[in-house]
Design brief:
The protein has 117 residues and is an all-beta fold.
């Protein structure tokens, strides 16, 4: 089972930027997909961004043009660059890794992102 550790969350003003990192306990080169979900209080956990093994990406409509996901196989790390942050981006952000199309996802412990003036 892949262990995932997130970092990079914090408090930022509206319009600011943060970069989240998710480092895996093993090589991610063969992992089918990795990405980020987020969950605000009282809400369900929603997909933010995903990067597939072939490098293709997909984003939630609410973050398109502002967030960028990338994958560094050499560092076993996935990043989420978040720009032009809005208060509605406030949530706990969770990293996941799905080893294959049919396997269950492994999850990190989550990192809090708060956008507030």
């Amino acid at each position: 089972q892949v262990q995932l550790v997130e970092s990079g969350g914090g408090l930022v003003q509206p319009g600011g930027s943060l970069r989240l990192s998710c480092t895996a306990s093993e090589s991610i080169g063969s992992i089918y997909s990795m990405g980020w979900y987020r969950q605000a209080p009282g809400n369900q956990r929603d997909l933010v961004a995903v990067v597939i093994r072939d490098g293709s990406t997909n984003y939630a409509d609410s973050v398109k043009g502002r967030f960028t996901i990338s994958r560094d196989n050499a560092k076993n790390t996935v990043y989420l660059q978040m720009n032009s942050l809005k208060p509605e981006d406030t949530a706990v952000y969770y990293c996941y890794a799905r080893p294959s199309r049919i396997s269950a996802s492994n999850w990190g412990q989550g990192t809090q992102v708060t956008v507030s003036s």
